[in-house]
Amino acid sequence: MSQAAFSKLLVANRGEIAVRVIRACREMGIRSVAVFSEADVDALHVRLADEALPIGPAASRESYLRIDRVLQAARTSGAEAIHPGYGFLAENAEFARACEAAGIVFVGPRSETIALMGEKTSARREAVSAGVPVVPGTLETVADLDRIAREAATLGYPVMLKAAAGGGGKGLRLVGSADELASALARARSEAQGAFGDDSVYLEKAIERPRHVEIQVLADHHGNAVHLFERECTIQRRHQKLLEESPSPFLTPELRERMGALAMALVRRVGYVNAGTLEFLVDSERKPYFLEMNTRLQVEHPVTEMVTGVDLVKLQIRVAQGEALPLGQADLVQRGHAIECRVYAEDPDAGFLPSPGRITALRVPGGPGVRDDSGVYEGAEVQVHYDPLVSKLVVWAESRSDAISRMRRAITEYRLLGIRTTLPFFDRVLRDPAFVAGDFDTSFAQSLLARADDRPGRPAEVAAIAAAIRAFEERRRSLTHASAQAPSTWRAAGRREAHTARIGSRG
Amino acid sequence: MIFDATVLGRTLRVEVRRSGGHYHVSLDGEPHEVSVSDGVHGFTRLRIGARSHELGLEREANGYRVSFPGDSLSVELAPATRGGALPARRDHGPARVTAPMPGRIVRVLSQAGASVIAGQGLVVIEAMKMENELRAPRGGRLLELLVREGQAVEAGTLLAVVA
Fold this sequence. Notes:
The complex is a heterodimer of chains A (507) and B (163).
Chain A: E1 8-11, H1 15-28, E2 31-36, H2 44-48, E3 51-54, H3 67-77, E4 81-83, H4 93-102, E5 105-106, H5 111-118, H6 120-129, H7 145-155, E6 159-167, E7 170-175, H8 181-196, E8 201-205, E9 211-219, E10 225-237, E11 240-246, H9 253-270, E12 274-282, E13 288-294, H10 301-308, H11 312-320, E14 337-344, E15 346-347, E16 353-354, E17 357-358, E18 361-363, E19 370-374, E20 381-382, E21 389-397, H12 400-413, E22 415-417, H13 423-431, H14 433-436, H15 444-450, H16 460-480, H17 489-496
Parallel strand pairs in A: 1-2, 1-4, 2-3, 4-5
Antiparallel strand pairs in A: 6-7, 6-8, 9-10, 9-12, 10-11, 11-14, 12-13, 14-21, 15-16, 17-20, 18-22, 19-21
Helix pairs in contact in A: 4-5, 12-13
Chain B: E1 2-7, E2 10-19, E3 22-27, E4 30-38, E5 43-48, E6 51-60, E7 63-68, E8 71-79, E9 95-98, E10 103-108, E11 115-116, E12 121-127, E13 130-135, E14 140-145, E15 152-153, E16 158-162
Antiparallel strand pairs in B: 1-2, 1-8, 2-3, 3-4, 4-5, 5-6, 6-7, 7-8, 9-16, 10-12, 10-15, 11-14, 12-13, 14-16
């Protein structure tokens, strides 16, 4: 374990999280090295880093997931450490091992810990050994349909089939009754095989009306560990988080303390080092059940930073440098309230279809308590090859209701043209009485979307006037240049009409 | 010029006349004085009476998408027909479902010849790390379903036709 500060660090990622790490490096006086695929030559992280090296074609399998190319870039640039961000190689034990073998510091836990917690049933067994309650179910993978049927009958339906190598909502199947089991098992297996190259699954009882609450932890190489309280991540769509906040409006002080203590027990049990997150489901009686551990920085880490005042990325780097944690549990308090909205390039009016393309105009919100962790700029291209996260809009305020008002204000300031984003959806969430009351579970987003879209006050008449004037001007211009080559866009648009497919339908 | 502007399912008759730097707009017969400045930064400022609006205007197939603070609206435009407003055109003729982006077909949820209802899932396409369900734009019979599971498709590839 080196004790010297890094002079150069490679960021094995792209998008907003690469930018986040590069910013931390700049503040710490560490030179940053970006890596980029052919599609990302002009990406923001490449522009902001001190150095940048190409690592292959657009497809992530050929670039951001290529361990050999990332390590070669580290050797070429002379980086002493690699920060993996989240996704890509962040929870790849083989990559962490390859870094260790190459004498490059991996900013994260030891490779054995990644492997241990990455296999979901071994993580469950560790949790049970540490005295942490897990969702009732099997502690081993199960392959045999008869055995799964027996276990499911014992647990009681509904049950969840889950990929042992899983994550991100893939290879996950809710099974309502015994006769759905066989086909659900086949589906879960094939999805798991496709996503993770491993079709083993295990069984959990489905928790009714759960909340999804996670605990942030941080530990150093000297045996010091702290937790940084919870993040409420219940607002999800198809197991993808959309909005997170801290504190959780659902936790009592006693439950918060208990979940923190449970997290610390598992951290000590596995000798965890660096930043990590323990995900829990909390049932309607406020009983927590450990789900899994993410052995990396989370997308939603900023809400924790806003309420604790701690810079998690800088502390990750300091821990990786071999420093002792500069703070103890008694130094940590939650102050005020933070909310994060994930601005995805997706169209909420068309079933959240991806909306890649060039951002033709962009103005981001500012003012008190507003933070925009973005990976783009005006003129940037949102690529089809990668995750559609454009930015994370985060606000902090003294209270939850002030934070909700501030987020709604920030959303109205966030102006972006060229692509569609999830921002209008968040305004619906933030106006919803159940959300405002803190009374929701993981089905919230889906049931909100199933209801009629009641966005009030949308200026339909102003929009009609604006569109008609623009059409008037375009038509007038084309009439003025009547001899010009092309038919007017106005008439062309009229002709295109017959060929237009409408995907989905306006809510 | 007179347009029928359809927004949020409602068709408004908009007449636009220009005089000097201003526009006289009649919206379903109600007159408005409007001035426009196409500003920097891709946004357009529209002043209607005393109220000012900063809008984004982006061309869409049948008109424009108009963005305003916090949201946007799709406005379909057609040259006005004499008499009443145009009928909603999208309920007539075959409706084509095309791939909105390059990706891979992971599931086919129906079959050619089946009858479908509006909003029913037809195929699931994986793109940008997410699975996306493409739905029937309207109810009817599925005339064609042109893709198989596992097939890679380009943006604009015709996937299905509902009639």
